[in-house]
Amino acid sequence: MDKIQNPVSTAFFKTEPPLPSNTTFPPTNRGELVKYLRHKCVEKNSELIPPMTFDKNIYYQFLVDDKYKILFCGIPKVATSNWRNVLLVLSGKVNATNPMEIDQEDTQSKFRPLIPTLNSYMRSHIRYRLKDYYKFMFVRHPLERLLSAWRDKLHSNLSSRIEYRRPLVKHIARVYRNVSRQLDSESLDRVQIRFDEFLRFVVDQAEKGAALNEHWERFHKLCHPCTVRYDFVGRYEHLEEDAMRVLKSVHADRMVRFPERSAVYKHSRTTDEMQQFYKDIPASLLKRVYRCFQEDFELFNYTVPEYLQIM
């Protein structure tokens, strides 16, 4: 039987010989991650390639800049807001020359429609951009991203998060705390969802085959790395350096600078506290989390921290 071919990619990476199974690339070897990704996709054959039916809605995470011929697949909690601001500056659609001048609330609200998503185009135009544009994405350690998502969306008491967190809190309280009574808004706002409850919620949803919230959905579900031939895959761990590489590749490095980490948030705050939050999570739950995110670990060459000892 012939191997499945996607109408967009035609399984381009199958022409490259697979690497030895023990091959890894050191984190400092930036340009090799995309090669590693392609070879891992070959090893997995067509398992992650979507059905032959062309569904343009799978490209809703892809941001488009026609001036610089950019396609960016934005993964929430991996500096996507900063990349939106960079694209806004490059587009010339906002009165700003520095991404740091753009208010983050405006980025997510009134300026959001200014950057088109790939699924808004006609199918023929989608194919053209997938073929000819510079395509990139950024990834982050899956466990760190989960912790960051819980902090931001469920543990935070910011007023801008309240309407977002209430339905999640209601569901988690009902399922994992057996809270049967109806909670009013004030009561919901007082409920603090623990990190272990959040992890159980995520893996239960994933194991049922449900689509996850985009802030903790798997990378390969959002960005289809075995279908789209990316030109570059950057790491959150080397954000500024990798971002500069992207801007140079599209000849935009003289037009805009990517925001410095220290100017946006505390450096490595989540990374530094990973052990603190994960050390008390039961090994059985950690194994379930790993299984749910195993494709992301393998495709992007991430490993489980030694201190977890779950493998």
TrEMBL record:
EC number: 2.8.2.-
Compartments where located: Golgi apparatus membrane
One Gene Ontology term, aspect cellular component: Golgi membrane
Main location: Golgi
Record membrane topology: Single-pass type II membrane protein
A Gene Ontology biological process term: carbohydrate biosynthetic process
Region Disordered, annotated ranges: 1-25
Family recorded in the similarity comment: Belongs to the sulfotransferase 2 family.
Entry keyword Metal-binding: no
UniProt source species: Littorina saxatilis
Keyword Repeat included in the entry's annotation: no
Keywords, comma-separated and alphabetical: Carbohydrate metabolism, Glycoprotein, Golgi apparatus, Membrane, Signal-anchor, Transferase, Transmembrane, Transmembrane helix
A matching Pfam family: Sulfotransfer_2
UniProt-listed InterPro entries: Carb_sulfotrans_8-10, P-loop_NTPase, Sulfotransferase
The protein's name: Carbohydrate sulfotransferase
Molecular functions per Gene Ontology: sulfotransferase activity
